[in-house]
Amino acid sequence: MVIITKLMFIAVIYGIFTSVIASRVLELSDRFLDIHKDGQWLVMMYAPWCAHCKRLEPIWAHVAQYLHATSIRVGRVDCTRFTNVAHAFKVKGFPTIIL
After folding, report:
1. Domain assignments of the chain as residue spans, ordered by start
2. In whole angstroms, what is the distance from residue 64 CA to residue 69 CA?
3. Options 42, 43, 53, 61, the catalytic residue
4. Out of 22, 50, 67, 72, which one is annotated catalytic?
5. pLDDT in tens, 23-62
6. What is the dotted CATH code of the domain comprising 23-98?
7. Which GO molecular function entries does the Swiss-Prot or TrEMBL record give (predicted)?
């Protein structure tokens, strides 16, 4: 019982920590086309069904956490919702990372 309680506690803490890190990644829309020249951006173009994109998510969250105190903004665009963004940046596959 003690082991289960400890595992549940660790899972809750991990979930809170992960959501804090993930919140550093900005969820962008087609408005990104208007603002992408304002400042420095590191953006992942992704599709929700893409297995490679899903594996990149925790790493991308750590990148956002690491760059949070810098002038570089870290975001992501769901290219299945915002196809005009994918077209504008000539996205041919997922994930695509642009700077």
Report:
1. 23-98
2. 9
3. 53
4. 50
5. 699 999 999 999 888 899 999 999 999 999 999 999 999 9
6. 3.40.30.10
7. isomerase activity
